[in-house]
Amino acid sequence: MIATLAALLVLSAPGPADDIVAAISPEHCRRTVDTLCSFGTRHTLSVTDDPTRGIGAARNWLKSEFDEIAKTSGGRMTVSLESFDVPKSAALPRLPGGATIVNVVAVLEGTSETARQRRYYVVGHYDTINGDRMDPNGDAPGANDDASGTAVVMECARVLAKHPLEATVVFLCTAAEEQGLVGAKLHAEAAATRGDVISGVLSNDIVGDPGVQYFDMKNGWSESRNHVRLFSEGLPRNTSAAELAEIRKLGQEGDSASRQLARYIFDIAEIESLPVRPVPIFRFDRFLRGGDHMAFNEAGFAGVRFTVPAEDYSRQHQNVTEKDGKPYGDVAAFVDAGYVADVAKLNAATLFHLASAPAAPKRVRMVTAKLEPGTTIRWEKSLEPDAAGYEVMWRKTTSPTWEGAVDAADATEWTSEASKDNYFFGVRAYDAAGFRSLVTFAGAAAE
After folding, report:
1. Number of folded domains in the chain?
2. Residues 435 and 304 reside in one and the same domain
3. Would you state the pLDDT for residue 10?
4. Labelling 409: which of 47, 68, 346, 434 has CA 20 to 30 A away?
5. Can you tell me the mean pLDDT for 56-72?
6. For 26-43, what is each residue's pLDDT tens digit?
7. CA 29 to CA 148: how far, in whole Å?
8. Cα distances (Å, whole numbers) of residue 263 to 254, 338, 437
9. For the CA atoms of 192, 65, 102, 55, what is the dihedral angle to 10 degrees?
10. Residue 83 is part of which domain span?
């Protein structure tokens, strides 16, 4: 009765992202990276009134590119410069005199009245720094960090704008990431205040240089052009004491909404046979470091980070120079545009599936009305009209990804003799075309 997850996905996957994946262009990615680097520096405190240099010129160019893309969307995409006046504050030492922070935002509205309230984000930061974080004048091309991630955002917008997606997709280029995730934090907090339903955030930060070797404990030094690291938080960053107690009670330390998003991306890469596959890293970010997805996590939203398999710190946060015959600096020559395009394929395919699928089921719980060896799971019926049925997902408690799925058809209850002690369970919804929602982890309730 229990099919393997891989078999179920192969049998039912519609393969609808083929056209989108094929449309992703390394040439477009190269142009975006080269153009952003041509502004010399994109430091958050750099000049804003020069048409060819500084962060002002960069954001104006980004907006103009989004404006051109919007013309292909049939009126569904709106583009704006989102400004925040940040006063001088001891809490923001990297903005010593305060600053005006400007994000570039493009919103592709969903076509479904019930689904368009759900928003899925792809994010990259367009600001840069060199060897001196506080230097607004020196060259800071920021090719890998993070013109590469911004190129992913732009390319996803270019190919998805033409498609009628049910849910809304937001393409966000943030400023002041290097000054403390400021642009992302202000955007996420404003979205939370408005009550926006942000169901997933894909942040791309340092996704351009896959040729750096890394040390593998089994195989020694190696490099991988075919993988990208995928970071996700286990415990939600804004967890209250009561919520943390519930997580401990359920053994849910590895089943946050962000972790479910990471598992979803892992599955999409398999379904679409994509050239770059995600390697799930069960940390919220690199060791003791951070990125824009964390600002969304802190605001209560699910978010993950894509990053190359390894980083060369001589090419990151460095002045452009040469030392002992070795080049330093984050210049465009080190960026592999084909790899950037392949990471964009993974992002675009994921967004396409997320924005085409029904919403994740609500109130998924294991029934605990009486002590029994088996498992009964219940959930609420979806209010979205295209939801055709549900699948119960399962995995052993030691497995990082879902191992199997059982089709529950259009029921809202499922019972098994399998012990709830030995497995984690969740439920996802699917539509007639085979698109699947994110998985909702099964909690516990008396009925």
Report:
1. 2
2. no
3. 40
4. 346
5. 98
6. 999 999 999 999 999 999
7. 8
8. 11, 25, 12
9. 150
10. 15-356
CB-CB contact of 84 with 135 (8 Å): no
pLDDT digits (tens, 9 = 90+) for 380-410: 998 888 999 999 999 999 999 999 999 999 9
Residues 215 and 239 in one domain: yes
What tokens were used for 74?
């049939």
pLDDT at 8: 41
Is 213's pLDDT higher than 70?
A: yes
Residues 188 and 335 in one domain: yes
Is 29 within 8 Å of 293 (Cβ atoms)? no
Listed residues 298, 325, 356: the one ending a domain = 356
Kindly give, in sequence order, each residue whose CB lies less than 8 Å from that of residue 250, ignoring residues fewer than 6 positions away: 443, 444
Peptide bond into 146 cis (omega under 30): yes
Tokens coding 227? 């993988």
Q: How sure is the predictor about 15, in pLDDT bands with cuts at 50, 70 and 90? A: low
**Overall average pLDDT of the 362-373 stretch:** 90
The string of DSSP letters for 268-295 reads HHHHTT-SSEEEEE-SSSSTT---HHHH
Sheet holding 404-407, edge to edge: 3-4, 404-407, 387-396, 423-431, 440-441
For the range 85-91, what are the long-range contacts, defined as Cβ-Cβ under 8 Å and sequence gap of 24 or more? 86/182, 86/186
Measured in degrees and rounded to the nearest 5, phi and psi for residue 148 equal -65, -45
